[in-house]
Amino acid sequence: MNNDIEKVLYTQDQVDHRLDEMATTLTNKYQDEFPILVSVMTGAMVFTTDIMRRLNFKLNVDYVDVSSYEDGSESTGKVKLVQDLTHDITGRPVIIMEDIIDTGHTLKYLADLLANRGAKSIEICSFLDKPDRREADVEADYVGFKVPNEFIVGYGLDYNGLYRNLPFVGVLKRAVYEN
Fold it and tell me: Which segments constitute the Phosphoribosyltransferase domain (predicted)?
């Protein structure tokens, strides 16, 4: 599996350090709140779990499963809600936990959906941001790392369901996904 990685962008130590910083910022902001963390599955599960354990405030966790990828490598731009929330978010602060902001279509759809359901506030916490691919008008409030316009895998991000378990963030070799 490691032979499929062209280069490592962020090591496990770099990821851990950045998560510590992000968790401190979130804890300072939400200390007296009772937010709901909404993890965008499946990619954000590793990020959500790791940052959640670092947070020092009361919270609920929920998840949604949305999809805009049909073939595994390119966004269609059309978002489909596969699994909805189980919590009522009316009047609650919501922190959307995302693995990567690419085109932005998924997060724009999700932020609008949750706003229409009466969330007190909505903030986006994304592990990675790929601004060169942005098509929708959406930005994260908290970003772990900015990444280049390459196919990124590891630490929850996948290609065809593979590579999520890599403990680092890497660039997938072009030959792997172009065949």
Answer: 13-159
